């Protein structure tokens, strides 16, 4: 995290490790989905707002997710809730907190 922008560089990391790093850097409440420790990630994303980087990371994955933005700063992420998808991939929803 630098100047409010997040970068993810993951080379065969687990999704759980990547999301734990995002939680540490953004201070956001992140709900780790079941199965995240077995999901491997190879990605170089960012720099970008946490919402955009997380969307790029999770879009097309087997997880449904909701990203919460802070009302005071829409570029700051206050939370991420993730769960295993039960249907076809859908576009993510953004919710103000």
Work out the radius of gyration: 12 Å
The amount of beta strand, in percent, is 35-45%
Structural class: alpha/beta
Spatial strand arrangement across the major sheet: 2-5-4-6
- Main sheet: strands, sense, barrel: 4 strands, mixed
What's the number of helices? 2
Strand-and-helix sequence, N→C?
EHEEHEEE
Helix percentage range: 10-25%
Task: Report, as a whole number of angstroms, the end-to-end distance.
Answer: 21 Å
Total beta-strand segments: 6
Task: Please state the average pLDDT score.
Answer: 83
Would you identify the regions where 5 or more consecutive residues have pLDDT less than 50? 92-97
Shape: globular
